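ok here's Cobalamin import system permease protein BtuC:
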Amino acid sequence: MTSFRALFFRGKPDAGYSRAKRSGKKSNHELAHERFKFIRILFVLGIAGLLVLLTGLIITLGPLDISVLDSYSALLARFWPEHFYVDELTSRVVWNIRFPRIMGGIMAGFGLGICGCVMQAVLKNPLASPFTLGITAGAQFGISLAAVIGFSFLAGPYFIIGNAFLCALFCSLFIIGLAAIKGATSENLVLAGIAVNYFFTAISQLLKYFATDEQLRLMTNWGMGDLAAFSWTNSRILLAIFVICIPLLMTKCWDLNIMTAGDETAKSIGVNAERTRIFIMVVSSLLVATIVSFMGTIAFVGLVAPHMARMVIGGDHRFLIPASGVLGALVLMSADAAGMNLIAPTIIPTGIMTSIVGVPFFMYLMMKGKRKEFWT
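and the structure:
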């Protein structure tokens, strides 16, 4: 049986481990672990700082000439107006046009990156992503219902968004419930997700076949993903879901670390793998369904960000989860900025740019990296 200590320290203990333990001194493995822990913390803080720097640089991109200093001043003037000042036009452009889109990219990328990380862990599948359980297919089905048939669960401004959210959440919960009846193993969840994903995709394609040009344009645009749909009003709903879901996922860091050694090992240590798997999938589905309903399909971010983080800092989910979130935000922000300015004034949809920008970089990391993944 794999010991608890072996889950975090590779190789055999050094010869002086027992003597160091008796004398109260730290062994070579413990010292190496502490050094690596410091590197992980430094990496997370470094990419968070890069995110702040990139925010100021992206704000300067556009027809109105805004310096980096003015972009940060406009942001800080909202909180400390007595210390920072910019003209009214710059303040309006930054806060009403450019920064909301950047904030949408940060929140969506952060959420998708975290959900991709925990899903890859509980499903033990390198191809797992926030859309493994058919969340996108369910949301697309809800959009198709509203656009073609005119049916919606909610009225008013959430006529379409409400359909996308509820159908995506229903699809995920149906798959989780189906897998729970059979046994919530990673294989059952993946197989059920693939089956339901194909089913709802087929129904959406059928509705597209009968759609008018205007209805088809609406469904197609939503399927490409667009951060322009984000607004300060939407941010309150997204922030509320984030405050609920992110801490719940972070509480399962140790359980995820233990589960990487296998369900039987986790059970022997006292972790109920099936219950943890269902809990994480339910919380992740709620978070992803909220992001997708407002911003459409933004694929690849939830797949690539956890791999990028794991190649650098390893598989300790105490650091891997936040690192995946910040890297997801960086990837999505960079892709959206490139899509807005590459062939301006034409804007390339965000969902397309995430793949164009992210795939070559991910392939480079995959070819260069030599670290074994936890599922091998």
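+1. Confidence is low (pLDDT under 50) at residues 1-18.
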